[in-house]
Amino acid sequence: MIERAVQIDSGGGLVGITTQPADGVEQSLPTFVFLNAGLTHRVGPSRLHVRMARALAELGFSSLRLDWSGLGDSGARQDNVPVGESIIAETRAAMDFLTRTTGAREFILIGICSGATVSFLTAQQDERAVGVALINAQSHLHGASAELGEALRVRTMTRHSYRIALRSSFRRKNWRKALGGRISIGGVLQSMFLAPIRAVLGGGKGAALPAFDPVAEARTLTERGVRVLHLYSEGDEGWDYFQEVLGSKGAERLAEIGAETEVILGANHVFTLLWTQDRLATAVCDWARSFAKPPAA
Amino acid sequence: MSPASYPAPGQMEAFFIGPADSQLFACYHPAQGRARSLGFVLCPPLGQEAIQFHRSLRLLARLLSEVGFPVLRFDFRGCGDSAGDHEDWSLENWRQDVERALVALKEKSGVENLGLVGIRMGASVALAAAADRGGVQALVSWDALLDGSVFLEEARAQHQDMLSHAHVRVDMDPAGAGRSELLGFPLPESLVDELESLRLSGLVACPARQALVVESFPRFPQDGLHERLGELGAEASLQHHETDQLWAWTEDFAKVHIPRKILEAIRGWAQELPS
How confident is the model at residue B9 (pLDDT cuts 50, 70, 90)? Predict the structure, then answer.
């Protein structure tokens, strides 16, 4: 495995680390591009991006761990491009860079949380993306409507509170905490009841949603042959967003168009426990293996 | 030096130090304007603390370089983007890493005088490395781990707190319970052994002629280190900058706490050093 520090001149001075298999780049395999999770720099939460990049290199995949402008070690942009546009432009600039320097032509975009959402949005705009691994993604299946996004946020939080309290594997632990006075009952009631009621009374945001088609959003990728993997932690709100927009049979609905979904029970948003990190890395590597083309007969 | 080193905009260069199998990721911030004869290597904290503090370290490097100090920051072996994993975690390895970083700073900048800024675990390692090698002119120690067993006790308590509050199920580990882990990272037994015998009160050589001891959280009192450095002949000062708990684990990676006042205080102290 060979790792190099690279600088990508895209107006922001992006910094990244490339990882290549020790025995050279297998040109038939796509290159992974890891995108920032929140404000965490390119190593990822608990250094997960480093671990996954190195595990993928063992399987023959090259990768880039990228810092968007203003994050990690990348410089801040000096223009006024909105961040929602710049992070997609910079992800595409990173792909340009890899094409120029390594000859890579196909890419798999991978990220946790915001990195997952941007992976999806970038793949919609760039046909070089042949796969997206979306870890705890949300806000990606309803288009760009801010009003819809706000309404879905309230619904997602309400669903999350109910699920964690009543249907998740954490429910006993949480009720023990509540009975022991270690969590705020008021806070729970606020998100389960008061927030949605206020949303309805305060302008109907929580009441009726404008029509949208989340399966059609996902199909923008799958009909192009892009492989889509949704990976969720049981404790993550993204899983509630997914079910809110797609329904309780959401995984089956996406499976019908060829997208895969997996939930890691007992895991939190950032995969803090080591066994959940193992599960995540295994899931990503297993999925990556399916990109290996069978040898010609 | 890796052949693949690139100058980065903003007067910073990202590169790797050393051979591939043990390379250390580093960022070099050249001095802006008139360069001073003193340069600093920044030694980061460990594990989740390092990830949460990355942005602050970058800002500190920028603040120091803007007033003429060349600065090099790096990731310890098995940490960040550097080679290796937790199996490489040891205080001795990290002391060697400090030495490699100091050599890289000299090569990059040509400075004659060397300084270290260490934070938490990085401070403990920097103090030990500087005491071992000698020749370090200035050292900043910020919330150093004065007693490794106290650090372990505190970190394990935070881990237990995380287990009780976060949406995690340790009992669902298919390998069964009993992993040695700390807030998202493995905790090798060999490092535990080293930490349990770590006592900075046992420093026997003066690590630097000039020293600044920073205490930012009362639960990690630094008076003992300040006194010890004085006993060893350092011109040491102690600054208290009580702030929110910088070192508390958080699941929310959309928030970063940057203790700018402390960073500026370190820059101010460095600017006052005799040239």
Answer: very low
